[in-house]
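stage 2 :: seqdesign
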């Protein structure tokens, strides 16, 4: 025990998951509310991609910890310069590889907030070095990457968290408890989605005809990362990359990890058996570089455990969620992100972790006797859940073993959008489509030369 008591802060954080770690720090439960974080509990964190959402994530984990490095390929973005000023003691990098080479021993954990196409290579680089990882959603840019990250995180015993913040909301957990309690009976059909549009179609002609100069301060080669060589265009960067197939995952990639998360958890969905995409006014041959302005993607999940088969239809953009038959005429669907249709009623909820979850009609909501809580409630939110898991040697709520399979649903939807109208039969165990070698080729697309997981 004497040897354990002299363990350094670095040794402690690296040993998250080991029971001995519990003896090396002052537990938060015995500290007064006003106490500062003990030095032995402070985590050295690097932020990779700190211009937008990633900057917010870095801020969210900074309290009581050390932000020791900031890495971004574009130093001209206000969000990046703001973080450079805010964390003036943090070393600044453009290339994550140089950051790890120079500071590997000084970094305990990383927060990744880059475009989708670079999530996997960055997360894998951190995991291989034994670093804990918080990665924005969607976790990856392909099914293969999702599987590889989950496998590596387990092998390295690092603490991971997908950035689907709603997973830590009380409403998400309450929805699960209502479903498990049989609040609306058996569920066979679900409609989910969002009115948002992530599409580059309106700028497609400009991208194909223009070759603007790369702005000073942007390392375009690093921004491209593992994606295939393509000239710079402001339609891609900054901020608009999500609407383009080489870099983002469209609206379904943007929102699945929020909106479908409660469903994935409550119904233990796993892999779908089939997936079919429909997109109006969308020609893959001429517009396939960009995502459509709206889509309807149908996933069929086979019966599992005590539940029967479930059909989940994703709607985005100009494809709207149909109005439930039992919703009162004077109630609108403005904030509706899902309708879960059961044999004894319907549950509606909003984006981000089943916000505003309600049974409809309202008469059934008022008559329903809510069950006692079965799932733990998260104090401090999603980022704190990850930090406390690092300190306590436990698993975060949406670690890659959960967030990876959840993200796969979005990745399969993206593949279906490349072959609209085709019903694809998915073999999750074999990681291939039974009826389409063409679709299977998209499961693990080739990286640009010089890049690998």
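stage 2 :: out
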């Amino acid at each position: 025990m004497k040897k354990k008591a002299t363990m350094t802060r670095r040794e402690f954080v690296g040993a998250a998951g080991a029971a001995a770690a519990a003896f090396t720090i002052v537990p938060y439960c015995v500290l007064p509310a006003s106490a500062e974080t003990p030095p032995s509990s402070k985590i050295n964190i690097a932020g990779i991609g700190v211009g937008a959402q990633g900057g917010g994530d870095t801020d969210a984990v900074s309290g009581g910890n050390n932000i020791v490095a900031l890495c971004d390929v574009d130093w001209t973005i206000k969000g990046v310069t703001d973080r450079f000023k805010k964390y003036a003691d943090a070393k600044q990098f453009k290339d994550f590889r140089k950051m790890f080479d120079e500071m590997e021993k000084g970094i305990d954990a990383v927060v990744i907030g880059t475009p989708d196409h670079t999530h996997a290579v960055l997360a894998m680089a951190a995991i291989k070095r034994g670093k804990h990882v918080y990665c924005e959603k969607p976790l990856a840019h392909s099914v293969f990457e999702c599987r590889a990250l989950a496998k590596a995180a387990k092998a390295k015993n690092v603490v991971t968290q997908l950035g689907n913040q709603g997973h830590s909301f009380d409403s998400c957990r309450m929805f699960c408890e209502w479903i498990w309690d049989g609040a609306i009976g058996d569920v066979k059909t679900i409609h989910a989605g969002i009115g948002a549009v992530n599409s580059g179609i309106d700028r497609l002609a400009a991208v194909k005809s223009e070759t603007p100069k790369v702005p000073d301060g942007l390392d375009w080669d690093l921004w491209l990362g593992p994606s295939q060589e393509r000239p710079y265009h402001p339609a891609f960067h900054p901020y608009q990359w999500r609407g383009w197939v080489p870099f983002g995952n469209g609206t379904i990639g943007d929102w699945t990890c929020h909106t479908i998360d409660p469903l994935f958890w409550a119904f233990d969905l796993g892999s779908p058996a089939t997936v079919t995409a429909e997109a109006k006014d969308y020609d893959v041959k001429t517009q396939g570089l960009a995502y459509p302005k709206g889509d309807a993607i149908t996933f069929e999940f086979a019966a599992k455990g005590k539940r029967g088969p479930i059909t989940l239809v994703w709607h985005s953009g100009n494809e709207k969620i149909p109005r439930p038959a039992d919703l009162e005429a004077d109630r609108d669907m403005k904030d509706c992100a899902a309708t879960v249709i059961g044999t004894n009623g319907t549950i509606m909820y909003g984006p981000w972790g089943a916000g505003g979850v309600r049974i409809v009609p309202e008469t059934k909501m008022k008559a329903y006797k809510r069950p006692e809580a079965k799932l733990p409630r998260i104090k401090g939110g999603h980022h704190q859940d990850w930090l406390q898991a690092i300190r306590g040697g436990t698993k975060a709520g949406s670690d890659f073993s959960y967030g990876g399979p959840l993200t796969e649903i979005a990745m399969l939807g993206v593949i279906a959008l490349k072959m609209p109208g085709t019903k694809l039969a998915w073999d999750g165990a074999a990681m291939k489509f039974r009826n389409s070698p063409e679709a299977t080729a998209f499961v693990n697309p080739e990286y640009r030369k010089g890049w690998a997981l």
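stage 3 :: structure notes
- The first strand starts at residue 44 and ends at 48.
- Confidence is low (pLDDT under 50) at residues 1-37.
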